[in-house]
Write a structure and sequence with these properties.
alpha/beta, 11 helices, binds adenosine-5'-diphosphate, disordered N terminus, six-stranded mixed sheet, Rossmann fold, four-stranded antiparallel sheet
Length: 339
């Protein structure tokens, strides 16, 4: 998830704008991550030990607080007949074509596919970051496509953890403050036992007072993982979490994601281009042209590499071949890019 382009036209697209857009405002934090509320939103000071509270937090909307999961499901998140088009008419891009897929609780799933195949759109719609054209996304038993902006904000803050390629830590805060940020913003109490478990497991005990620029890339991503897990979310979405890491740090990060599933029962959905990264997952789904074309249990790196190669070659052939439109009208088609 590149936080600078994941959220479409949102200039302030980053971790904070996902979990703390201005309730009652335009739904976005500004580019500096300024979290001050506007409008008549009820706010309280957000305490962070050792620093002046730089922002305020909204109270939880009653509607979401009172809503209950409809029924227990084996899926942490599920897409039903999910369609996402960008644009309309002959310029429409069919990013997701009637997707039906469930992500089981306590399972680590990788989403793969050539560039432009719909992976990011899938993840954004599952996380309530992008609207859908039709269909449903059931997360924790609720159809999130029916939620308003405030409900989606609370959902992202309480039920979803995010891990980005670029770590996306807040530079002015220590590792500990970054890890606790979702709870701080929500005004929730810290479960110190869980916090200690996370920092010990992630080898961060000696790094808690350090700011991000005093940490290696691998350490920063481990802080980001702890931040994603601190609120025990229904699901963690990771977008190319190893994209900026060397192979040793990548292996550490992937091993921890796997442990979070095995030992803590976490549900993880990870977009990756890397077949080796996908081999850490319990399941890998391959997208091509807005459809799921493969669904593999216990993927191996070799198997995923072969599948990806096949899909990339197919996409390249498809974009090179003239379409019916071109043959009839000489109009260019919307081609997929292939990495
Ligand atoms: P991937 O993550 O697999 O690279 P995406 O989900 O980003 O693919 O994109 C799927 C398709 O949707 C692509 O053809 C892409 O160009 C198109 N697309 C993605 N976002 C937008 C947007 N905001 N406006 C128009 N088209 C978009």
């Amino acid at each position: 998830m590149n936080p600078n382009n994941i959220y479409g036209n949102s200039a302030g697209s980053d971790f904070l704008s996902i979990i703390n857009p201005s309730l009652g405002g335009n739904g976005e934090a500004n580019a500096n991550g300024d979290l001050s509320m506007n409008g008549n939103t009820n706010t309280t000071a957000a305490p962070i030990a050792g620093i002046a509270a730089p922002f305020s937090i909204p109270s939880q909307p009653q509607q979401f607080a009172q809503s209950q999961p409809q029924q227990p499901k084996k899926y942490a998140v599920e897409a039903i007949d999910l369609v996402k088009d960008y644009g309309t008419g002959e310029n429409a891009v069919h990013a997701l074509r009637n997707i039906n897929v469930g992500f089981e609780k306590g399972k680590f799933t990788a989403i793969m596919g050539p560039s432009g195949s719909g992976k990011s759109t899938m993840m954004h719609t599952l996380a309530g970051l992008d609207s859908v054209t039709s269909g449903e996304v059931i997360l924790g038993g609720q159809d999130i496509t029916k939620m308003n902006d405030n409900q989606l904000t609370m959902l992202r803050r309480n039920e979803i953890g995010f891990i980005f390629q670029s770590f996306n830590l807040l530079p002015m805060f220590t590792a500990e403050q970054n890890i606790l940020m979702p709870l701080t913003l929500a005004g929730d109490k810290v479960d110190r036992k869980w916090f200690n478990t996370l920092v010990e497991t992630l080898g961060l005990t000696q790094r808690l007072k350090h700011r991000p620029n005093e940490l290696s890339g691998g350490q920063q991503q481990r802080v980001a993982i702890a931040r994603a897990l601190i609120s025990k979310p229904q699901v963690v979405f990771a977008d190319e979490p190893t994209g900026n890491l060397d192979s040793v740090s990548s292996a550490e990060v992937l091993s921890f994601l796997k442990r979070s599933v095995r030992e803590f029962g976490q549900t993880v959905v990870m977009v990756t281009h890397d077949a080796v990264a996908a081999s850490y997952a319990d399941r890998a789904i391959v997208f091509a042209d807005g459809r799921i074309v493969s669904d593999v249990e216990h993927p191996t790196a070799e198997q995923m590499s072969d599948l990806l190669m096949k899909e990339s070659e197919r996409a390249a052939r498809q974009s090179a071949a003239p379409t019916m439109d071109q043959l009839m009208n000489g109009k260019p088609r919307h081609a997929q890019t292939v990495r």
